[in-house]
Amino acid sequence: MDLSRGEKTFLAFTGLKGCRAGSPRQLPRESGVGYADRLYDVVFVVVVFSVVVQGSLVPTVARWCRVPMRSVELEPWALGVRLRDRPEGVARHLVEEGSPAESSTVDGLAIGEDAWVSMVVREGRIVPVSGATRLRAGDEVLLIAGEDENAIADLFTARGT
């Protein structure tokens, strides 16, 4: 993976700081070095300074380096499956306003006998799917498609687009 100059600079600035300093700072004490306590204190201050100062500058450095940062509100639930390859026949569609799927029931979709709607997500919530489930614009539909995925995709696209 190629990184831009800004990304490399950002990583150099924000890389791990102080996480391994705890072990080496004990060495002077264990080795009987003079001023061991003083060295221990200096390393401690440097680590705290590094974490606090550099940590507080991360958003500023990201802007300077043109590395996008955004705050994302965490969702309390995640439902997902990670697969090495895209599974054949699985499709995810957004019901567009004015599409044939809008206001249709799941049974009313012309998706064929070898395809079925597996999940509907509406406004961030899973909708229980049955034949009578009526689709709305903005719904995200996960389905297992049969032979003709393109014809099924057309059902979710507004006419004239």
Describe the structure.
With 161 residues, this protein is of the alpha+beta class. The chain has two domains: 5-64; 90-155, Alpha-Beta Plaits (2-Layer Sandwich), CATH 3.30.70. It is built from five helices and four strands; from the N terminus they run ααααββββα.
List the helices and strands and how they pair.
Blueprint: H1 5-14, H2 27-31, H3 36-56, H4 58-64, E1 90-94, E2 116-122, E3 125-127, E4 140-144, H5 149-155
Give the neighbour order of strands across the main sheet: 1-4-2-3
Put simply, the count of helices is 5
Assign the CATH architecture of the largest domain. 2-Layer Sandwich
Radius of gyration, Cα only, in angstroms?
27 Å
Average of the residue pLDDT scores: 82
Fraction of residues in helix: 25-40%
Number-wise, the strands total: 4
Biggest sheet features: 4 strands, antiparallel
Features:
4-stranded antiparallel β-sheet; elongated; Alpha-Beta Plaits; 161 residues; 2 domains; alpha+beta; 5 helices
